[in-house]
Amino acid sequence: MMTTWKFDTLAIHGGQEPDPATGAVMTPIYQTSTFRQRSVGEHLGYEYSRSGNPTRTALEANLAALEGGDHGLAFASGMAATDAVLHLLEPGNSVLAVSDLYGGTFRIMQQVFRKYGLQFEFASAIPVNSPQETPSLIWIETPTNPMLKLYDIRAICSWADSLSPRPLICVDNTFATPYLQRPLELGADLALHSTTKYLGGHSDVVGGAVVVRDDELHARLSFVQNAVGGVPGPLDCFLILRGIKTLAVRMERHAANAAAVADFLYRHRTPSRVFYPGMKADPQSELARRQMRNGGGMVSFIHSGGEAQARRFAESTKLFTLAESLGGVESLIEIPAAMTHASTSSSPLAVDPALIRLSVGLEDVDDLIADLEQAFQAS
Ligand code: PLP
């Protein structure tokens, strides 16, 4: 039954049904660390909440349904999910990653896993003609954080098919969400999320997830999830499940507001460049149409006045709150070079210090544009 449901229905009902014990319509928060065993080893499917918890099971099934996968795994943060994927590799293995990506992902690769013998190559275009090593894992973020650059998932997957042995392909789908883009249907092996962002949707919880189709890959990830232990608590799982119920309607409004904001910035004299994949003038708009349902809720631009004016601008908005993170109902503004991407400074991945990133929320778009206009004037 569930597999025939469309996205909006799955978002609300996937992996969930009224609680058989009480009829509670919302999945209960099973706030327990352990579960009774009737006799040694005889239990109702749960032993200990690091290994499994019913609220987490509902979230994991829901995430799998939304991504068109067979297995979901929930983690304590997006970084814990990334850590679990990188733990699939062996010393000496090589990772080919896109060169514009979340600063924390760059940091865990360079400062944590490199010292255990993994090698990382960052490329601004994939497929690459001759990678330094045949990668064991290809890491794609699309749209990227913070430049909103797109990578063609289907094309990268068919290139990977020609490599021997075929690398695993992981797509960080945080910016797009499964409502806009489903990497597993385009040939990827793993879809990864910071559920902190659009899936949670209300800036009140930190979480992460990975969705796969392959049973063996799922078994290996489940082992890491339990052995390393970066799992979310039941209340966090509940909050993410609740957020997901409105994902489809929120993403429509995020995208409509972001498109209007991008258009305003594009016409304005101050930004020197505007990045929004949903905008006709964006060089990647054709790929965006092919790969994504709409352009999403993130907009970036370079302030033509340079770093100091960009900072003044970001400190002058009244409705856009100066803060890290994204994907909540409220609009946020940040300077990636000094905030979310500080760990890439003095690396080849460093971003323009005058780049401003907007997470466009669900407020009235006229108010958002008026706020940006007054911030241009004030800075
Ligand atoms: N991936 C992307 C694209 C992100 O933007 C972030 C956080 O901003 C992460 C992963 C890490 O997620 P978390 O902060 O939940 O650990």
Jot down its keywords.
single chain; 379 residues; alpha/beta; seven-stranded mixed beta sheet; five-stranded mixed beta sheet; binds pyridoxal-5'-phosphate
Helix-strand layout with pairing:
Layout (H helix, E strand, L loop, with lengths): L6 H7 L40 H14 L3 E5 L2 H9 L7 E5 L4 H11 L5 E5 L13 E5 L11 H9 L6 E5 L4 H4 L9 E5 L13 E5 L2 H14 L5 H11 L2 H21 L3 E5 L9 H7 L6 E6 L2 H11 L4 E2 L9 E3 L20 E5 L5 H14 L1
Parallel strand pairs: 2-3, 2-4, 4-5, 5-6, 10-11
Antiparallel strand pairs: 1-7, 6-7, 8-9, 9-12, 11-12
Bound molecules: pyridoxal-5'-phosphate.
Report on this model:
The chain is α/β, with parallel strands linked by helices and 379 residues long. It is 35% helix and 15% strand. It contains 12 helices and 12 strands. The protein has helices spanning 7-13, 54-67, 78-86, 103-113, 153-161, 177-180, 215-228, 234-244, 247-267, 285-291, 306-316, 365-378, and strands spanning 71-75, 94-98, 119-123, 137-141, 168-172, 190-194, 208-212, 271-275, 298-303, 321-322, 332-334, 355-359. The strands form 2 sheets. Strands 1-7-6-5-4-2-3 form a 7-stranded mixed sheet, with helices on both faces. It has a 5-stranded mixed sheet with strand order 8-9-12-11-10. The longest helix has 21 residues, at 247-267. It binds pyridoxal-5'-phosphate.
